Amino acid sequence: MLALRPNCECCDKGLPPDAPDAMICTFECTFCTDCATGVLAGVCPNCGGNFSPRPIRPAHLLKKFPPSDKRVLKAEGCAPAGRAA
């Protein structure tokens, strides 16, 4: 089950469960579309994988399967793709 993390790991933008601009990699690293496509050029800084749009969990299932409330933020910030942060 996807964790549905609440924020972009790069800029800390809030990404609620219904956010249409949430992107994830295969390990569920979570970024907003602006950071994923702009700063990171489509490459996850954590694993080197690509991004896909994060699915939106239907609202009626959020109570039974709540999103994560744990915020993850890269303390060192996000470096552009090809440069380690």
TrEMBL record:
Family annotation (InterPro entries) = DUF1272 (IPR010696)
Q: Which Pfam families match?
A: DUF1272
To which species is this protein native? Answer: Nitratireductor mangrovi
Which superkingdom is the protein from?
A: Bacteria
| Protein name per Swiss-Prot or TrEMBL | DUF1272 domain-containing protein
